[in-house]
Structure to design on (182 residues):
């Protein structure tokens, strides 16, 4: 509640922040209501959307590098979706600094997230939340295919349909990159 009040106060004093908050709209998802900003995502047969699960701490170093590589190598008509924490005021500020081609979803924490026994886990709380989010990210997109990546990745070659999909069967079947076969 306090963060919402702070964001409202900031909005009153900042025309840029005020414009961003006015553009936040609700998107329906299977887990309730999600806040969403940015352009409409791609949809329909053969559509692809790049999904990045991140948070505000990634802004100074990793995320700008990834987004520069996206501008160079990701097709303009394919979408870019960044999933951020809904309860983080810092993540709302991060969204204001993202390019206009990026669509943002503010994901609420999983049910019972505050009560998890983090002390017994080998991974940090943020890592486990990101993994959980990757299981759900296809629900946030209307695209036929979602391409998952981390904020610490960099695209190094053009994303082209013939490199990412096998068309030999008459339909688009994605190649599974990074998967060991046989």
């Amino acid at each position: 509640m306090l963060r919402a009040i702070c964001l409202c106060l900031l909005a009153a004093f900042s025309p840029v922040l005020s414009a961003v908050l006015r553009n936040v709209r609700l998107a329906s998802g299977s887990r309730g209501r999600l806040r969403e900003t940015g352009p409409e995502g791609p949809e329909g047969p053969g559509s692809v959307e790049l999904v990045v699960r991140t948070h505000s701490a990634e802004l100074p170093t990793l995320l700008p590098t990834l987004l520069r590589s996206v501008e160079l190598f990701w097709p303009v008509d394919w979408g870019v979706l960044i999933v951020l924490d809904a309860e983080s005021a810092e993540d709302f500020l991060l969204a204001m600094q993202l390019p206009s081609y990026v669509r943002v979803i503010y994901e609420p924490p999983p049910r019972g997230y505050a009560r998890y026994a983090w002390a017994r886990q080998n991974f940090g709380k943020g890592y486990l939340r990101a993994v959980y989010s990757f299981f759900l990210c296809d629900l946030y997109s209307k695209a036929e295919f979602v391409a998952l990546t981390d904020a610490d990745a960099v695209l190094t070659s053009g994303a082209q349909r013939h490199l990412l999909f096998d068309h030999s069967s008459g339909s688009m079947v994605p190649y599974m990159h990074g998967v060991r076969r046989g």
About this structure: Helices lie at 2-13, 15-22, 62-73, 89-96, 125-136, 161-164.
